User: Fold this.
Amino acid sequence: MSVKDAVAARFEQLCRERGIKNNELATLAGVTPSTVYSMMDPTRRDVSVITIKKLCDGLGITLGAFFSTPEFDALEQEIK
Assistant:
């Protein structure tokens, strides 16, 4: 799993737990819905830390809480 895929999966999990849709997440975070949909798109490669931070702010969680999951700990090294 790529870092970007792990980020998208984590936001999907958090939204599911809170019962909110992508449009609602965008509104909470003060970003456009296209920003959220772009991040969730598996064909897109990158997502910025600033976008992740805004989405975390909208959900009321810290970056530390966002990244503190086994999925992120298990990611393979990017340097090959």
